[in-house]
Each structure stands twice: as structure tokens, then as C-alpha cells.
Specification:
By secondary structure, the protein is mainly beta. Helices cover 0% and strands 49% of the residues. Strands 2, 4, 5, 6, 9, 10 and 11 form a 7-stranded mixed beta sheet that branches. Strand 5 and strand 6 form a beta hairpin. The radius of gyration is 13 Å and the shape is globular.
């Protein structure tokens, strides 16, 4: 079992930056692929970014490519999402997820563990 706790969300102005963190506990995390998803009001949860268990491969949604960076520090059991050049459309609750397998996927139903989410609000 893996417990995930997100932090780092909050209000930010257009063009600003935030770094989200996802701390994992409960078992060794380095073999688990991890991802970030987001859900805006009235919309379905959508894929943002994912990273393999060893951190060597990443995947991004087109909407965030070039602006967001996912990374991980397995020694700290933590996954990060650096978000730059934020836009109002990035406003959502951001969720961290992990899966038992080490490779990345984009489907929400392929992830086994989820955090509670952290709110990101981008305003002009």
C-alpha cells in the first residue's frame, strides 16, 4: 500500500510558477511509476504528466508540454511537478497518482494509488 500526500498548491498570478510535491509513504516507491492529473470544476480528471519508476522517462499532455516538468527523488520518496508560465486554464485540483508497474500510462484507471489533491488557482 502507498499513501500519497500532495502539497504546494495555492493561488498564483498568470505567468507565475508553482512547484507541487507528492510525498509517498508505506512502501518502497522507486519501482512505481507516478503521474500528475488535474480536474477542473465540471470537467473530467485529465492526465498532466507521468514519470517512470527510475525517473528516466517522462510523458506530458500537449497542453503543458514545455511549461511543466515532472521529476522525482526516490531517496526522498517524492515526486514533483514544476509548473511555469501558468495560465487560467491550469486552474484545477491537482492529484498525484502512483501505479504498481514501473512504466508510465495516461489512463486514470491504470493508477492504483491516489492522493487527496491540492488546489491550484491561476488568476490575472
Amino acid at each position: 500500500q502507498v499513501q500519497l500526500t500532495e502539497s504546494g498548491g495555492g493561488p498564483v498570478q498568470v505567468g507565475g510558477s508553482l512547484r507541487l510535491s507528492c510525498a509517498a509513504s508505506g512502501r518502497t516507491f522507486s519501482t512505481n511509476a507516478a503521474g500528475w492529473f488535474r480536474q477542473a470544476p465540471g470537467k473530467e480528471r485529465e492526465f498532466v504528466a507521468a514519470i517512470t519508476g527510475n525517473g528516466r522517462r517522462t510523458d506530458y499532455a500537449d497542453s503543458v508540454k514545455g511549461r511543466f516538468t515532472i521529476s522525482r527523488d526516490n531517496a526522498k520518496n517524492t515526486v514533483y511537478l514544476q509548473m511555469n508560465s501558468l495560465e487560467p486554464e491550469d486552474t484545477a485540483v491537482y492529484y498525484c497518482a502512483a501505479r504498481i508497474a514501473p512504466w508510465t500510462v495516461r489512463r486514470t484507471d491504470e493508477y492504483d494509488y491516489w492522493g487527496q489533491g491540492t488546489q491550484v488557482t491561476v488568476s490575472s
